[in-house]
Queue: 3 jobs
Job 1
Amino acid sequence: MKFPKMLTLGVIAGAVGAAAVNNRTRPRRAFLPLRPGATASALVTGASAGLGAEFARQLAAGGYRVTLAARRGDRLEALQQELLDRYGMESDILVADLSTDAGIDKAAQHIRAMDDLTVLVNNAGFGTVGRLVNTDPVRQQEMVHLHVLAVMSLSQAALPGMTARGGGAIINVSSVAAFSRMPGNVNYCATKAYINAFSQTLAAELTGTGVRVQALCPGYIVTEFHDTSEYTRFNRDRSPGFLWLKASDVARASLDALGGSRVIVVPGTVYKAAVMLLRTPGIGPMANRAAKKLR
Ligand SMILES: NC(=O)c1ccc[n+]([C@@H]2O[C@H](COP(=O)([O-])OP(=O)(O)OC[C@H]3O[C@@H](n4cnc5c(N)ncnc54)[C@H](OP(=O)(O)O)[C@@H]3O)[C@@H](O)[C@H]2O)c1
């Protein structure tokens, strides 16, 4: 075995151990007001599928009236009915394309008009495959709109109400890609890194206001993310099963973490270890190469 490979395995083992201990010793406190008697509301972008739909389910189960935002209104209507049937909770629908200025303005106006918005989940997102030079420039611009401008503008719209009421939480869905610099994923890595920097800096600015900010950094999740035409050559089976997280577990880890003080939240021991590796000088590039082989 070559030395760098041994070193990498040693660091992985150490990082997994450290992450597991870290995981065990942290106390969990519930953040969400639970029924009966809760009157808070929430807004989830990208609620028509995957992780966003799971956030909406868990927030509704916790007594939140959720505004479900995405482009596909029929999907949102089906989820609205499900939340009513399963949890007896009313919800609202906001059809908006958050990759456009008009869509972002529409969502921001909706947020400003909510008088008890307690949790904002900026979740909508997508990925592309291939080197920047070969990908559609319009798709890359849409990604910057969705991952950067929408996250910033909707947070800004939510803050006056949350700070005036002395509490609330903004969850910005990022990715472990925020810590990687992986060729073939340039704009995704860059926009998710923006989300982390934005969330950490905003959290610092909001100290003492009662408003929490989280950058949720999952690894692979079983959702529709990899089912688009852009991912036709992506083979899920090439990545080991233990790398695939369940959307319900990721949403639960995020909401549970609102009871603590972490801004960067990485669900799952394997991905906590991966992030520790990616942040280790000299190891990050090797980890990037290993991760690229799994794509
Ligand atoms: N799945 C993974 O492996 C993974 C890993 C790390 C991070 N993430 C992040 O997790 C978040 C949720 O993704 P997912 O895995 O749940 O994917 P998904 O199942 O494909 O869901 C994506 C959601 O985003 C919405 N969306 C996409 N473009 C939009 C637009 N222009 N305007 C408004 N909404 C839009 C989609 O709704 P409409 O199409 O109806 O608009 C959909 O509800 C994303 O930010 C993603 O980057 C995913």
Job 2
Amino acid sequence: MDSDYRKVVAITGSSAGIGRDLAILFAKRGYKVGLLARRIELLEQVREEIVSKNGVASIVECDVADKEVVKAAIKKIEADLGCIDIFIANAGVKNGMNSSNFHAGEASNVFKVNVFGILNCIDAVLPGMLNRRRGHIVGISSVGAYFSVPQDPVYCASKAALSSLLEGMRIDLLPKNILVSTICPGFVKTEMIANDKNPQPCMIESDKAARLIFKAIEKKKKVYNFPIRLYLLTVILRCMPTRMASKILNAL
Ligand SMILES: NC(=O)c1ccc[n+]([C@@H]2O[C@H](COP(=O)([O-])OP(=O)(O)OC[C@H]3O[C@@H](n4cnc5c(N)ncnc54)[C@H](OP(=O)(O)O)[C@@H]3O)[C@@H](O)[C@H]2O)c1
């Protein structure tokens, strides 16, 4: 590989929030960036920001819940930028559904994006990585994967499914020289949690989250949980009797 080789990173959900900040950061660090999301006008703004700083980016409108659309989107990114070295499955949704407003149809909408959307993405990028015997798949999960909070059990369940999927794939793909990283953020100040009335302890800004995630990806961490205090709280809550965990959650 020649010394001016610029790696290609593709990021789903890069029209806003963490994905957007990650895209700008990767471009700043010399990567060619493939941007995927549904809101094309926002992707165009991110692309313009990257290009104005001499970066390279390609955008494609993509709903990760649609398998064929994802396949075509990955093809376009690879045609524009070259083979994908790092794929970041970041697109996600949260609907604040708990047991008092439970609705199976709504729950399945969350799983369509947070779980099946990621399966669709892996389906589209993995064959190429296997052929090249090289690649890095990163999934943006959540500390909610470790402890499901009563305000958002469906969202947390979708993230637990994602973390579990990535854990098994990591071991399976290691001999094939494909890395798999699971990133578990705590609360990050983005559109996703802007209207949340629930407590959001240890919240951090999205650009800071992007910097921490970037470092973890460069260090090829298998799992990265942050902020550490919130992660430790989820581990402790998990071991506690339910009433005690409930008291602690109410006191936050
Ligand atoms: N914010 C937090 O506190 C927090 C904590 C832990 C984990 N996370 C995870 O971090 C990731 C990014 O979240 P965020 O906080 O940056 O949220 P955000 O600001 O709401 O951004 C979500 C991104 O996902 C995209 N998206 C949603 N549905 C999509 C679909 N069907 N197809 C393609 N793209 C889709 C959105 O773009 P379009 O609407 O343009 O499609 C947007 O770019 C998510 O996986 C989230 O679960 C967030």
Job 3
Amino acid sequence: METTAAFAGLSCVDCEETFDAETATHRCPDCDGILDPAYDYDAIDLTPADLERRDGDSMWRYAELLPFPRSAAVSLGEGATPLVECPALADAMGVGRVLLKDEGANPTGTFKDRGQSVAMTAAREHGASDVALNSAGNAGQAAAAYAARAELDAHVFLPSRAGFTQKAMTEVHGAELTVTDPVGGNSQISDAGAAYTAAMQDHPEWYSTKTFVTPYRHEGKKTMALELLEALDWEAPDAVVYPTGGGVGLVGMHKAAREARELGWADELIPMYAAQAAGCAPVVDAYEAGADRHEPLDDDAIDTACNGIAIPDPGASHLILEAIRESDGGAVATTDHEILDAAIEVARSEGLEVGATCAAAVSGAFALAESGEFDADDTVVLLNTGAGNKDVDSLRAHLGEREAMERDGSVA
Ligand SMILES: Cc1ncc(COP(=O)(O)O)c(C=O)c1O
Ligand SMILES: [Zn+2]
């Protein structure tokens, strides 16, 4: 297996045992906990000055801080996404600066590409022939794309509620798609998870690239924070507001902020804020209750149109909550109405397209601003995890509802 110089293997976040990445491939062999790539930071031969001389072509420009070198990467040019100034939003929120990190610019239109790029690299390094996962939609599409690139067969399990684009493109990339309860149903990610688990029992040779089953998805997503910090001259912003489902991106970004501090590149951690939909907010509930882990919600209790964050049982909630607390961030839930309104406001006031799920970060930031969380000179970063055109149906439907309400004179 080709790995980078400082990569020191996998460390279990639960029992703290360390494992050789050649033999340990997924969850902890001892306790089934989450494995996390570990590094010998003294062996990292990279400085911010080196980075300045490098191309901003993809997230693999940070390869020294990833487990695999660029030469081994399964890459479609993911990362290196724009950080766009949003003066109208800054004005409306009463803060110094609002910046939007636009992950819609990734090859399959979401930040999921970063995670699948590293996970698919690991799959190929481990000699896999097939990869499998269940997902809310975007990760399935990304996995199909990266598997195609790596010449692996992909098996993707999605709930019926996943978007048409995600289902269609999964098949266009040549993956085998299973949609749970496809005819008129409204199945959830847990249904897709059950179908995936059953298939994995029949095919133990399939290599999983599922959230926090592979140790490499949060590792890929940590590059979002490296790009952000580098763009801000290694000065942490006052807040990153992040639409949180399984928390892969939030946990990954927090890890990168810790690493940047450990390496002496940045002085402060990035305050991480988890934004969820009020109709599925297990992390916000746990945060407000002062708990270390979430209470799983029943599928019947899920009441949000935001697919990517309709995650009732986020298995890594302890890591999300730890990241929020350690970084002095927070957690906020807003209603679907507020979320979809926020997507439309961004599209109209800034010209930027944010996905329905992603707009939870925008409405969440507005709610935080209203509650007095931010100062007038703060820099607030909104993580737009995916392109607006992935969710056109929910956005257009909301616009239609708003227009009908305005016509009736009920609500403006
Ligand atoms: C667009 C979008 N944003 C956010 C999320 C939540 O991701 P995470 O697991 O990093 O919390 C998803 C997951 O499906 C998504 O598709
Ligand atoms: Zn363990």
